[in-house]
Design a protein that fits this description.
By secondary structure, the chain is mostly helical. About 65% of the residues lie in helices and about 5% in strands. It is built from 14 helices and four strands.
């Protein structure tokens, strides 16, 4: 065997030497062919879908709407600040402005994920890609599509974030002039997480009333929830010291009028922007908003003229606000006559609700429940009597029958009242026990501006 092996070795060597060029040629050919094969495979594979084309007209309108809705926050600050006493002007304004910071950060970190993430039991949302907005650019190429209209996702996020900001700021009017700033900050953060985010998801996100309850821009999610929270807070915390025996007149109604004007203008972005388009429904929403606001302001002034023989500026802005709140859930879904009625009827009811507050003796300082809560409830239910039938629109065809839709409306109202009422009471109780919510008697006498912020709104001392 050894001799045979030794004899074969030269033959094997010669064979290897002869085949070496052929082997090398084959390897080179394979190397040259591989890229071509890879290219052919890549060409045969389906290309990744391009993100939808962005509707620039709608995007431009949504950017404008974001600015208009944000303008409502300083508008609200002026509106509220003019109604309190001089020593509480800055403290009252800070209740609105601090919400822009606290809720603005909360919305980015977790709020948007809780409101518009994938639903969990139809009650709350969650999507890790939305936490800190870290995955927005990677999702659908950074776009957001609704009803066939595509805009940048960040634009939609920022628009919805402005609603989250103004909602807890509304509540502050109910306990104006008597709460600690630190406790208020904790309250609005927890309230937004536990009340606003679930309600927003249930009705606007993918929750169990989504696409069922008619609520274009927050009649249920915002105004009823804030109004009920304000009522609970006013009852739980008690009245301002000296109320109602001591006169607590507004310090600057011109400031309130200016704030009301900013709210009226901002409301066009509030309602019309909520259509998430720049088209027919957008125009309808803007027109009905204007009609209801004007009807509300006029009806309150006329009512005052009949009853008191005088028309007041405070009555004008109260009626305007009632009309705006009432039209909010259905601005794109009702007829012009319906908009007139939703400005007139809720305003009259709100007028008597405010008068009832005085008789019952509870101190909802700036009538958050009397206007936002009452007008929100009346508007959410009353819209059912004024829905357009032709031309059809998405907001007026949620249910197959009128009765079925009414059930959805009542469910939304009841849900908002229950969730906001119960959780607000729990939060007030816990915060009051842990860190105290009411100002001390000395601090309340000195005023929030000096006691809490070390400042004076008008640069003067010892003002009431």
């Amino acid at each position: 065997m050894n001799s045979r092996f030794k004899m074969g070795s030269p033959l094997l060597a010669l064979a290897a030497a002869a085949l070496a060029p052929a082997i090398a040629f084959a390897q080179d050919a394979a190397t040259a062919v591989a890229p071509a094969v890879d290219a052919a495979v890549a060409a045969a594979a389906p290309a990744p879908a391009a993100p939808p084309a962005i509707d620039t007209g709608t995007t431009a309108w949504m950017l404008t709407s974001i600015c208009l809705v944000l303008l409502m926050v300083p508008g609200l600050a002026l509106f509220y600040a003019g109604l309190v006493r001089t020593k509480n002007v800055l403290g009252t304004m800070m209740h609105s402005f601090i919400a822009m910071a606290i809720i603005g950060v909360m919305w980015v970190v977790v709020g948007y994920a809780m409101c518009f993430g994938d639903t969990i039991g139809g009650v709350i949302g969650w999507n890790p890609a939305y936490l800190g907005l870290s995955g927005i650019d990677a999702k659908d190429g950074g776009t957001f599509t609704m009803a066939g209209v595509t805009i940048p996702h960040f634009v939609y996020i920022m628009f919805q974030g402005k609603f989250a900001i103004i909602t807890p700021a509304l509540i502050a009017g109910a306990f104006a002039e008597r709460v600690k700033f630190s406790s208020y900050c904790v309250f609005i953060l927890l309230w937004s997480l536990l009340v606003y985010c679930p309600l927003c998801h249930i009705i606007w996100g993918a929750g169990f009333l989504s696409c069922k309850n008619i609520d274009l821009a927050g009649g249920t999610v915002i105004h009823i929830a804030a109004g009920i929270a304000g009522l609970v807070a006013a009852l739980y915390l008690g009245a301002r010291r000296g109320y109602p025996k001591q006169t607590m007149s507004p310090n600057n109604l011109t400031m309130t009028l200016l704030g009301a004007g900013l709210l009226w203008v901002g409301w066009f972005g509030f309602n019309s922007g909520s259509t998430i388009q720049s088209g027919l429904d957008t125009g309808r929403a803007l027109a009905m908003t204007q009609i209801a606001a004007a009807a509300g302001a006029l009806s309150w002034v006329v009512l005052e003229g009949i009853i008191h023989k005088k028309a007041t500026s405070l009555g004008f802005v109260s009626g305007m606000l009632a009309g705006l709140v009432a039209i909010t859930p259905a601005a794109n879904a009702v007829t012009p006559f319906g908009a007139l009625m939703l400005g007139l009827i809720p305003t009259v009811i709100c007028y008597f609700a405010v008068q009832m507050k005085n008789k019952l003796g509870y101190d909802d300082s700036l009538d958050v429940f009397g206007i936002h809560g009452v007008a929100g409830i009346v508007g959410a239910i009353g819209l059912m009597f004024f829905l357009r039938t032709e031309p059809k629109n998405i907001a007026s065809t949620c249910a197959d029958t009128w009765g079925g839709q009414m059930v959805y409306q009542l469910e939304g109202v009841a849900l908002s009242i229950a969730v906001s009422g119960v959780l607000t009471l729990v939060l007030l109780f816990v915060i009051n026990k842990v860190m105290g919510f009411r100002l001390s008697a000395e601090a309340e006498q000195a005023g929030m501006d000096h006691a809490l912020h070390g400042e004076h709104g008008y640069g003067l001392l010892n003002l009431n």
